[in-house]
Amino acid sequence: MNSSRKQKFALSTVSSVAQKPPTLWQSLRCRTPLGWLQLRHNKGQFILAISGVAFADILMLMQLGFQGALFKSSVRIPETLNADIVLTSPQIRNILYPGEFSRRRLYQALDVLGVESVNPLYVVLANWKHPTTGKKGPMLLLGADPSRKFINRSDINQNLDRLKIPDTLLFDQNTRGDYKSVLTDFAQNKPVITEIQGHKQHIRGLFTIGSSFGMDGSFVTSTETFLRLYPQRHAGNVSLGLIKITSGSDPHQIAQALRQHLPNDVNVYTLQEFVDFEKNYWATNTPIGFIFSLGVVMGFIVGVILVYQVLSTDVNSHLQEYATFRAMGYQQRYLLGIVLEEAIILAVLGFIPGVAICSLLYYLTQQATRLPIYLTFARTMGILVTTIFMSLISGVIATRKLHSADPADIF
After folding, report:
1. What is the pLDDT of residues 261-307, one digit of tens each?
2. Contact call for residues 115 and 301 (beta carbons, < 8 A)
3. Cα angle: 136, vertex 138, 140; to 5 degrees
4. φ and ψ of 272, to 5 deg
5. Rounded to whole angstroms, how far apart are CA atoms 118 and 314?
6. Residue 125 in 3-state DSSP?
7. What is the chain's percent helix, strand, coil content, to nearest 5?
8. pLDDT at 277
9. Are 60 and 299 in contact (CB under 8 A)?
10. Whole-model pTM?
11. Measured between alpha carbons, how far is 397 from 338 in angstroms, rounded to an integer?
12. Of the candidates 162, 167, 163, 231, which has an alpha carbon nearest to the alpha carbon of residue 200?
């Protein structure tokens, strides 16, 4: 009797377990990975598909890298200016072509409550001669008062006193091009002489900023030397006005007060607004900004097309198998899940070599151009999400063919 009760209890336990629905993890663990098995069945096509996804990732990452380098390189000087508020000419295009405005506006700015000090900055895109090769190239020349700090860069500020000597320059050692001999001579205390506007200039200090899409590098000199090189530039007309405000003051409020106090022949920006203005110029007012954005879109479209071709071919070659599943009672969503599984696998496996190759290309590009191009974590994760989304779109389009998987096709 006791044995009979035990048997009944065991049977009821088995029955209750059999009726208990499996958990999600149990379903996934027990599920046959049909998508993976179908992809790797044709290894040649599988490798080709991964290569296509990797190519799309490389295309998007390179375009995003160039776009990021464009924005980063364009604001490396503006974002480190020793200023809370910046005055510019209304004709300013960007920092390479800032235009001019009257220096008197800086003195008038001192009348506004909260303005602590003002500092004029002269800027021009100079054509300089390489000290050894004699080749000429565009360099941003900054003319400033060497007795006052105009930028928050220690490698420049520690050499400002040297600019008190006439015809003296500080040289950006991260300038695009080959300057090993120049840097070697400087390290050995040999004279390094270059030429700007037909005037010989002595390089007596180094700093590190780098190139941009509009210049090879930059120089810093004194206001006196700047005006000697460009006598057509009147000392009373400056390129940028750097304004420092008193501690605890709100730059936005003082900027608004300056806009009301000064004539409309100057623009008033907070430092962050000036940085945003520079970025916006390159993003919207130049062809290169549009080209990089278009390149990202084209990379996405190319990826969608490549993955769609692979998945569409796979669906066509297995239509009879899908029809068999339908005849066995499997729902349409199960078949869709197989195709979307393939899409996600292609996205992840294509992403890995794409990022690996791109990291190498970033390094080579940085060494060749001196541009600040980096493979950031945020950009990498963004491309991973984009790649999965791209592949899912392709999978959704490819699954339209599954509606034609008629069970009658197996007979």
Report:
1. 999 999 999 999 999 999 999 988 888 888 888 888 888 898 888 88
2. no
3. 135
4. -65, -35
5. 69
6. strand
7. 55, 15, 25
8. 95
9. yes
10. 0.78
11. 14
12. 167
